Amino acid sequence: MMYTAQGKVATSSEVLTQYAPLVRRLALQLIAKLPASVDLDDLIQAGMIGLMDAAGRYKEDQGAQFETYASQRIRGSMLDELRNNDWLPRSMRKTSREVEHAVHEVEQQLGRAPLETEIAGHMKLPLEDYQSLLQELHGSQLIYYEDFDRGGDDEPFLDRFCVDRADPLSSLLDEHLRAALIDAIERLPDREKLLMSLYYEQGLNLREIGAVMEVSESRVCQLHSQAVTRLRTRLRELAWTSPESSG
Fold first, then answer.
1. Concatenated DSSP letters for 39-71?
2. What is the pLDDT of residues 112-165, one digit of tens each?
């Protein structure tokens, strides 16, 4: 339970007023590393719910200052909001991770971007089944909420690209992440690089891209999923091997 400076039990309004800046600061730190589609106000609203939950549960004999305790609850509430709005089913996210892991292992073995047949072989799948899997994964995100979740002992890989938004070097770190993504795109096979350019730079839809590349729309979906998987794999590798990650 929270108390005011006068020793009275703090009202909900007083708690919200006092700690609203903390909620906003945590929301800005998180959204700085999320896609532009994530709404800041939604995160702040979720954080306020976490704040009120913290105020109701907090006991002074817990051995932690309220702000430290509340920060954990606020961040957890924001991550729950991201989880609830993450439309990709958990089973498909698991499949996406498995494909990503396969791409990484084959790339390490061959020293180059692997072919679909090589990835399919590594996963012990017929090529047709692997391509069907890619089509199911179409639309999967380059960044998931788990990439920012500190539930385990390991630091989330994208956090290694970024620091607290209050840091004056944040703009430089933004540039570092942007440069890493550009480098990852440059390493894509030519067809996938062309697809990403047509889709994200030229704004073509899947049917139009298929016409340009002389493939079916479903094949465009497969290639897009493959490209996103390669990008995630490359970003993860860069994050764990970059000088910043060891400093």
1. -HHHHHHHHHHHHHHHHHH--GGGSS-HHHHHH
2. 999 999 999 999 999 999 999 888 877 555 555 455 444 444 444 444 444 444
Spatial contact of 54 and 70, defined as CB atoms under 8 Å apart? yes
Tokens representing 84? Answer: 């609830």
Domain-embedded: residue 204: yes
Helices 66-84/40-57 angle, 10° precision: 130
Which phi and psi angles does 9 have, rounded to 5°? -65, 130
Query: Which of 66, 84, 102 is the C-terminal boundary of a domain?
Result: 84
**Whole-model pTM?**
0.54
Q: Is 157 part of any domain? A: yes
**Domain of 235, in residue numbers:** 90-246
Q: How far apart are CA 220 and CA 205, in angstroms?
A: 10
Length of the chain: 247
